Hints:
The complex is a heterotrimer of chains A (332), B (243) and C (289).
Chain A: H1 2-20, H2 25-50, H3 58-77, H4 79-82, H5 88-94, H6 99-121, H7 126-145, E1 156-157, E2 163-164, E3 168-169, H8 170-193, H9 196-206, H10 208-213, H11 218-237, H12 240-244, E4 246-247, H13 249-252, H14 255-268, H15 274-293, H16 296-313, H17 317-331
Antiparallel strand pairs in A: 1-4, 2-3
Helix pairs in contact in A: 1-8, 2-8, 2-11, 2-14, 2-15, 3-6, 3-7, 3-11, 6-11, 9-11, 14-15, 14-16, 14-17, 15-16
Chain B: E1 5-14, E2 17-27, E3 32-36, H1 43-51, E4 58-63, E5 66-67, H2 73-78, E6 81-84, H3 96-112, H4 117-130, H5 146-159, E7 164-168, H6 176-191, E8 195-199, H7 203-209, E9 212-217, E10 220-225, H8 227-230, H9 234-241
Parallel strand pairs in B: 3-8, 3-9, 6-7, 7-8
Antiparallel strand pairs in B: 1-2, 1-4, 4-5, 9-10
Chain C: H1 3-33, H2 41-59, H3 63-69, H4 71-90, H5 95-118, E1 133-136, E2 139-142, H6 143-165, H7 167-177, H8 179-184, H9 189-214, H10 222-236, H11 241-262, H12 267-281
Antiparallel strand pairs in C: 1-2
Amino acid sequence: xxxxxxxxxxxxxxxxxxxxxxxxxxxxxxxxxxxxxxxxxxxxxxxxxxxxxxxxxxxxxxxxxxxxxxxxxxxxxxxxxxxxxxxxxxxxxxxxxxxxxxxxxxxxxxxxxxxxxxxxxxxxxxxxxxxxxxxxxxxxxxxxxxxxxxxxxxxxxxxxxxxxxxxxxxxxxxxxxxxxxxxxxxxxxxxxxxxxxxxxxxxxxxxxxxxxxxxxxxxxxxxxxxxxxxxxxxxxxxxxxxxxxxxxxxxxxxxxxxxxxxxxxxxxxxxxxxxxxxxxxxxxxxxxxxxxxxxxxxxxxxxxxxxxxxxxxxxxxxxxxxxxxxxxxxxx
Amino acid sequence: xxxxxxxxxxxxxxxxxxxxxxxxxxxxxxxxxxxxxxxxxxxxxxxxxxxxxxxxxxxxxxxxxxxxxxxxxxxxxxxxxxxxxxxxxxxxxxxxxxxxxxxxxxxxxxxxxxxxxxxxxxxxxxxxxxxxxxxxxxxxxxxxxxxxxxxxxxxxxxxxxxxxxxxxxxxxxxxxxxxxxxxxxxxxxxxxxxxxxxxxxxxxxxxxxxxxxxxxxxxxxxxxxxxxxxxxxxxxxxxxxxx
Amino acid sequence: xxxxxxxxxxxxxxxxxxxxxxxxxxxxxxxxxxxxxxxxxxxxxxxxxxxxxxxxxxxxxxxxxxxxxxxxxxxxxxxxxxxxxxxxxxxxxxxxxxxxxxxxxxxxxxxxxxxxxxxxxxxxxxxxxxxxxxxxxxxxxxxxxxxxxxxxxxxxxxxxxxxxxxxxxxxxxxxxxxxxxxxxxxxxxxxxxxxxxxxxxxxxxxxxxxxxxxxxxxxxxxxxxxxxxxxxxxxxxxxxxxxxxxxxxxxxxxxxxxxxxxxxxxxxxxxxxxxxxxxxxxxxxxxxx
Lengths: 332, 243, 289
């Protein structure tokens, strides 16, 4: 595991320096989105690809992370109005929280919600779980829209500090953080794959009944997968308000996140950590280019069509196709 | 000597349909019990209730001196209860060796502590050898014949190192020599201390294997005793054997 | 709490619930009886709405009549989709992950295509009963709601008769319970499922017309209904048509009361909240199998 971690960190640092070179701010913005999706898709795949439980509510976990940040930032802004004078000075030392701390908090909040939702619905069939995730996304969106503290339906402004000492613009700092999260997600996914946990997940995905009979504590493992997946998604969401500056519920809960979190792993391949990465890089780059050249609606249409196509024709994604090709060549 | 498995007044309904009606059954440690009955008589339902895949409405199941009612299936497996499925349910995306790895990682591991990688590899190889599948260790279940899948199913149940193994119709569709193989395997297991319940339709196998024979018809147990006595029981003959 | 307001909310809720029953009928068949998680169903309903809209605006035909004429088209669409679903997923035993992803893709693609074709503007139809209301003392019955409610109940009754009185209908019930037995009776279960799914999508044609009568539509309107539809289906007990009707009415009334007393922005959460609670505490529903 250590060699892989070292390699990923090196690649991440390399990428960061590479994107920095042309000194085009937009590159950071585009790259940030793609790397964010690497985290989201890898997280989704832990529950979806490894364990076989489809989560349609990726947007909800992502938004939970984002809105935790918004709530905490708003709290920091209104500190003096909200807390008694005696504590205020002390809190002013802690708030506003730095982004890494926000990331951890976002992760914790999403993780807890994931655990709770899992506990309610994971005793049932996979189909019910999937529908429940859809339900949860809408319930959460409605709650947020009605919560004035975080801006309600009109949204909230988050002021981004101008420069980050040592790294240039704040955008570069966010990008570096997101790269770190991506490394974390990939390392975690790979570690799981080869571990006792990974075998348990695979058994559940393949045949839950037989897994139970073989001694796998299926409910417990499913809860672990849901919590882990939700935590990572929440962590990805926490910096989002700072990246985007103005957060509306429609953007945080956008269907785009749900579709991409599913389409990218399914097109890339769901059986290993490589699939989501491949799917994200391919589809992500495609979308970033399409957003600039064609309309974003056509862009989404293509994603949807690709998803349907791949799911029918290549169930194991691009990685699956490559593996089949290699296996056929080896057999000759 | 107290019974290893004790089923008392176990009943199971599906809506209005009574699948099992007040079943009493005892299995002594080290015993070889045969369970026979027509299709639909409730044999698999009984297995499912004993193993926790289904929960029975009334009655109790005691295993190894402790009641297991309400326990999830995986917990019962941890306590030493293993079963093979009537229609084999292998893990299709895993190799044969990995199929055996799962029960080892989750049952044996929680019972006696973490296993070393080499131990697991060795044990997988040993089990596959025992059922004659060693050459296919790196292949996937879809490359197996029906017979081989049955053997894998048994091997996987054995990988959990059970005290009691329930073999649910492992021999259907096998040739004479293949049946002999499986029987020999089960006898060997029994001789090493594992209690075995054999559920079968193939009477020759059941008769030669069982020390005791129980008969299930329409959810009720109608006979339980020495094999040669049971097969002569007129009710058994009428309900199951005689045509 | 004004009593008149409450009565009004309940009546509105019942009318709404009647309409919801039409929307859910298709899912009752697809999910309740065939175990197919067609989350794209609301998208087909919206498609039905837009078709009713185009023909209504172009030729002035009544939307409900349009939807009845379009029934065969939707039926064929349903059978085609089932065929793809069956060959790609059911046959290979991979319905859970891939089947869900497939329908999700279909939902998404349908919505975006409607968006590209019609844009985000709200569309509405014209019909003589959109506007006037009947009055019975303190109770208002807007015909805009009453007519769809009655049409929906009619469709529901027709479905119930089809399922319980015709051979094919009973075969559909049978296939949900014991596919093998059906095969032994020399009935092809796949054909039966195809017919049933076709029927399920056909209901979307009618539901779509009713939808656009009740409210103006835009492409993403279907998403609100995903939760409602599954909530009603699960609450009513999978596969139970009477249960679906009762659950639909219940949901309609609760939504209506919430909207009247707490504001409409909470409405989407009601259905989904219902769903989560039902799944958590009584997954077999009120009248479940």
